[in-house]
Amino acid sequence: MPRHRVDECHRAVTSGIVRGMLPFSTVEAPWFREMIGTLKPKYCPPSRDLLSNTLIPSWYTIECRSDCRWME
After folding, report:
1. What gap in Å lies between CA 38 and CA 36, rounded to an integer?
2. N or C: which terminus of the chain has fewer CB atoms within 10 Å of its end residue's CB?
3. Where are the domains of the chain?
């Protein structure tokens, strides 16, 4: 799977976890991995650590910038 598609999928998972207020451990739950495997077999979802230490902080920064532009 091309890197840009992996990044796109990671953003979608991150957004779903944050907006749904789901526990970070959701990405490591067997049912979640099975669901993702059914929807996109070549995609490997992020680990809980990658989600909490990298993806969510990046998502937050992008959302804050977007909100700041909206307020101007």
Report:
1. 5
2. C
3. 3-71
